[in-house]
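User: I'm writing a short report section on ligand binding and want a predicted complex to refer to. Could you take this sequence and uracil and write out the structure as tokens? A short remark afterwards would be nice.
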Amino acid sequence: MASALKALYDEYVGVDGNACTRCPRLVKNRTQVVFGEGAPSADLVIVGEAPGATEDEIGRVFVGQSGTLLDEYLAYFARDDARWLMSITRRMTSGYIPTDEEYDQIRDQLIETEKIYYLNAVLCRPPENVDPSKEELAACRDRLLKCIYAVDPLLILAVGKVPVKALLGKDIKITSDRGQVFDIEIPGVTGGIRYPMLVTYHPSFVGRTGDFNSKTGPGQMWAQDLELAFALLDDARALTRDEPRPKRRKWEKK
Ligand code: URA
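Assistant: Sure. The structure tokens for the complex follow:
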């Protein structure tokens, strides 16, 4: 972990996993603080809402049902030089369900080949998985902004309205604003740094609706947003680092 992230980890997680005590309701409810994981200098930062039951128990972000759904869809767009990801996602498209170890491997490969960092708007699990309160979002915002500043990505992907509220400071209507890119400003040493933030549905919403196949339903729109995220990333890598655009699988629209 790069030193700026390590300092934030020490401040919020600490040796016992429970260093931060800013939010009384969350401190009472949580098992541990769930920090974030990924490539320390990631190109893509994914921001979710808050840890769920599995994340709270294990201490890792996005490892429950919504996390595996997110990784499955991200992996679908694997670059053609990421051979293992390509082959497992093709098997998954034909109905194969990965083992827990393979899901871990999918996460590791996504982090390595796409340079992703996974974060949440708040670090601790709210009771009954309700949305974090305005005060809890505000209390965790400084940490969120500092993490993004430390990683300094090319693109932020906000999944669901909670991370958008945390980063944009206002509510949006996710059904009409998903698929849009917003410009956000993160405080830096010499002033604000602007980042593009693509907004899409939260995976748990997509999973709950169960609507993966109807033409304009959440599953199809979500997949198209993730495809857009990779297209934007490839553009940014080409523009800033002269990297050739990789070949990727195209989403087959219904
Ligand atoms: N939902 C989130 O938003 N984040 C997680 O880490 C898990 C579920």
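A remark for your report: The radius of gyration is 17 Å. Residues 218-241 form the longest helix (24 residues).
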